[in-house]
Amino acid sequence: MAMVAVSIAPSGTGSASVSDYVAAALEVVRRDGRVRWELGPMFTTLEGDLTVCLELVAKMHETLAAMGAPRIGSVIKIDDRRDKPLTMSGKMEAVRRRLENS
Known about the structure:
The protein has one domain: Alpha-Beta Plaits (2-Layer Sandwich). It has 3 helices and 4 strands. By secondary structure, it is α+β, with helices and mostly antiparallel strands. The chain is 43% helix and 27% strand. The chain has a 4-stranded antiparallel beta sheet with strand order 2-3-1-4, with helices on one face. The radius of gyration is 15 Å and the shape is globular. Strand 2 (36-39) and strand 3 (44-48) form a beta hairpin.
């Protein structure tokens, strides 16, 4: 299982606000239903099959283009651990345990 952090931002839209675009991109993921996801203040994290996550990122990107964004910048970070199960909650819990023990 992989985790993909993605930030997709339009530019040239005439507004500094991007929340409508972020919501539309997340609607793609929500409607699809094949991956778990979590919205963060700077990135959205997808959790699931890597191929599916990347397919959804492409669809999210294209959604902004369909909304009329003349330019779109995307940042993608992938964590694809294959030696044991990987989950968003598991990663955070591992850090919390270490903080409690320090």
